[in-house]
Specification:
The protein is built from twelve helices and twelve strands. By secondary structure, the protein is an alpha/beta fold. It folds into two domains: 115 residues, Alpha-Beta Complex (Aspartate Aminotransferase, domain 1); 246 residues, Type I PLP-dependent aspartate aminotransferase-like (Major domain) (Aspartate Aminotransferase, domain 2), CATH 3.40.640. Bound molecules: pyridoxal-5'-phosphate.
Length: 391
Amino acid sequence: MLQSKPLRQAQPDWSAWREEFPGLQKSVYMNTVSLGQLSRRSRTAVNRFLDLWTERGASAWYGFWLAEVDSLRKEFAHLIGASLEEVAVLPNISSALAAISSSLDFSRRKRVVACELDFPTLTHHFLARRSEGLELTILPSPDKISMPLEAFDQAIDEQTALVATNRVYFTTGYIQDVKALADIAHRKGALCLIDDYQGTGQVPIDVKKAGVDFLLTGGLKWLIGGPGVAYMYVRRDLIPELNPRVAGWFGHRRQFDFDPYTLEFRQDARRFEAGTPAMAAVYAAKAGLEIINEIGPQQLRQRTAALNQDLVARLQERGYTLRIPADPNRQAGITILESSDPMMLTRALAKRDIIVDKRPGAVRISPYFYNTVEENEITVAAIDEILKPYQ
Ligand SMILES: Cc1ncc(COP(=O)(O)O)c(C=O)c1O
């Protein structure tokens, strides 16, 4: 419950929080960039869902489950500084993207601007729409780490309907200045959509201050909620004019009239929710969000940035090549270690119970608030040991 939250501690008890994640006892888990750890609370919450299913059957929808989706939206709105009516819950980013894009008018302005550092589901969606005449510009990154605002500024023109990009780039950890980007987009008459899957939770965001039109994110990673839930924010004044063509009965204003002849969208962002929510995922996700809100985004950022900078310093001290932003204020909790054989390195680390992740030419190491400096030390020592024969 948001209202009954305990007063935020000056300094959270990080080792107590660590106890909340039993998986951390089994391995040195440095892979939140792929999947956040499962908390005891999420496990208990999913069990509660299963109990309700057994005990109540279909009536669980009305007494409990729909209310749980409501409180999930509330919890998310609180985290990003949105109002409840601006938030919708969908199964994944791709379907959220499809719902929004289906409601936009690309007949006069045909162009969407994205960049090569974006997670590809974003570009894939718009590539699929090229057959309808939509034009997609994918900006190259000059240093393969960051994406300069000037490049967006130059690319956005009077043909551009939408700028769509990530706030934190998944293969470099670079934090984009989305407020400046939204300003550029708006000055040129375009809208700004942010896929913030790698940002929300670990790097604070206030959607009102940022001025973005749409923000998408999900439970898998830094919101420690597992798969099956994505969150959508749509700026309030845009909602009435956006009618998704990817639609369904959960978006209908009179959902339980079961009227097949009319489609009256809900007045709020729930018009983008098409079908039945995956309730087990909703229960897991809400417990994860509660933890994130309880600790608070500022504390999470401080802790994660400190751990990440410690990791970076240890790796750089030993001469490893990192693909990260030079300015630590622009780096999220993702460290990219260049590697000629990421598969070998990832597997050798996994044999030592150290879990990281690989991408082409690199290994991603991503400590979160529940990790420790000692785990950084263990990880770097293991990398040294594995790579010594090759040096
Ligand atoms: C930035 C970003 N966007 C989107 C996704 C996933 O998209 P979807 O929810 O459609 O699977 C990921 C997953 O790794 C991601 O890192």
